[in-house]
Amino acid sequence: MAHSATSRPYPLGVTLVEGVANVAIYSETASAIELCVFRDGTEMRTALSERTGHVFHGHVPDLGVGSRYALRVQGEWAPERGLRHNSYKLLLDPHATAIEGEYTWGQAVFGHDMNEPEKMDETDAAGSTPLCVVTDTTFDWEGEEAPRTPLSSMVIYETHVKGFTQTHPEIPEDIRGTYAGLAHPSAIKHLTDLGVTAVELIPIQQFVQDSHLEEKGLRNYWGYNTIGFFAPHGAYSSTGDGGGQVVEFKNMVKALHAAGLEVILDVVYNHTAEGNHLGPTLSFKGIDNAAYYRLVEGDEGSYFDTTGTGNSVNVGHPAALGLIMDSLRYWVTEMHVDGFRFDLATTLTRQDGAAEIHSAFLTLIAQDPVLAPVKMIAEPWDTAGYQVGGFPAGWSEWNGKFRDDVRDYWNGTDSVLGTLAQRILGSPDVYEASRRSPLSSVNFVTAHDGFTLHDLTSYNSKHNAANGEDNNDGESDNKSSNNGAEGPTDDEAVNERRDRQRRNLLASLLLSAGVPMLLGGDELGRTQGGNNNAYAQDNNISWYDWESTDQKLLDFTTRLIALRASNPALRPEWFRQAPESGEKDTVEITRSDAARFSDGDWDNPDARSVVFVLAYTGADTFALLLNAAENGVEFTIPTAPGTVWELACSSDPEQHVAPPVTTLIVRDCSFTLLRSRAT
């Protein structure tokens, strides 16, 4: 079938139709846009000669799969009014599905003169920038089926594509640290044996290496510096970044789905790698600066910044919102991912400055049929505000209160028993008023940003000297549960205490209502040597050390996850009432002496122990005994509703239960989980 002689303004980006490529680029402020094809060292420019509304479009001949291209955008240079067009600069297509190469940092990639920021620079950027690659959209998805794991059954594993397999001895060296490495049977076996149901991959959308890190011999490891919202990061591809990264990513998703594992992407739509008015001109800034970024009203030469990176995406503008929505739909329909975790999601709700639950961003997602079955997880804060509990029904949220209160409890902080109980029950104090369930809470005690579990219990302070910032970066207070020596030690008593605290924290995570998220490597005893901000450590500090696996900790974590998976009382879907309510999910909370709590008990600064009896109609019942005191506590055990109480799990390897048990001493800083079988 012959193609139409007239190009089309939609979809944006490059679309291959029979015999020709349709190209469409949005800009309200450009005067002309050229698509530049690079082949055999030459640059061929084609003007997008048609315009519909604010979209420049045209047909580009000889632009097919594998072609390398970029944009040149003509228009006014008036940075004081937010106009930063500079046709000497090569710009990435915002809708590019693959990006090849890295930036050579220098004047060529800056639209302004680096010595006179108000002056336009005329250095040509050709040869100093990555190029977009036209990719093949065909892929054999036959037999692939998304797991669609219910939230109540989820256990999320936050991990890094490269770090997870970079040193794995059973994975071939040529695919370590890549999408193919994560898809290898040995990698998948670890995940399925552990029992997690989803991998949450910290950013894999194409990101930029920071010049200031490269100058110090460091690399951006975490990847929160996105420039390509449709492109899988090329450096994570074993086939190179010439377009094969797209197929390799799809093969990874297909393999993980075949094992019953969902894929959640940590996405960074709140800012880009172009920084503030002194940052480089890589894409959006040179195409339509004011459409894509929030500028300071009355001072349009400056950027409104609630991300701490220099800029914030302008979610009050249809072009920026459209880009985000197109990107989300692309990753769902074309790449088959199962969900998203939104970095600094609160920024995405600030269309006019204040965070809004009825913002355009949240409204668009709520009504989009493609995104309806997809898991949405917010990091509910940014540099300007904390919004835990402020996202709509249907969203889950990283619950920072869970992390802080659980750490405080096991660290012996006074008067936290009441808040600890709220966290164990799924944070009803946060979610119940808006009729949201515990499944709104993504619980975690550690994440990529901060100490690993091993280091949280081994160090009293951060050790970030390797980051080159004189140990001034990262959180200064880790709220650690380490009451012994700083760092590695041969003291058996200290090491035993640390082991117990790791098991306490893991149990608090995996036996609480909500959706647990495990930091990848915590189950192995992974250490970063006390570095709690390893964003720039693309090396052994961050990579998993598979040869040093703590097998006892791995076995303990696996057992806890299996207990949760096989017992509905340990993963309730809704807030549970007292047993007399007749609900199938019930909880009863008592003091260690079996008496009910009074208000004064919750406020008692010396209160350190509590019992949760967790029941589900027709299933096994559990009694969770927590003791954060520095001494052993005798617990009065409630009557077993089914068979006699038996020991299910404990952080104390010496804990024994001789049925029938009516009282039980739980040693200092320990938990014990008892089970009464239904039959």
Poorly predicted parts = none
- Approximate strand percentage: 15-25%
Oligomeric state of the chains present here: single chain
For the report, how would you describe the main beta sheet?
A: 8 strands, parallel, barrel
Rg on CA atoms, Å: 27 Å
The side-by-side strand order for the widest beta sheet comes to 12-13-16-19-20-23-24-25
What characteristic shape results from the CA principal axes? Answer: elongated
Q: Pairing-aware structural class of the strands and helices?
A: alpha/beta
Number of helices in the DSSP assignment: 15
Alpha-carbon distance between the termini? 68 Å
Residues in helix, %:
10-25%
Mean pLDDT: 94
Query: Based on DSSP secondary structure assignment, what is the total number of beta strands?
Result: 32
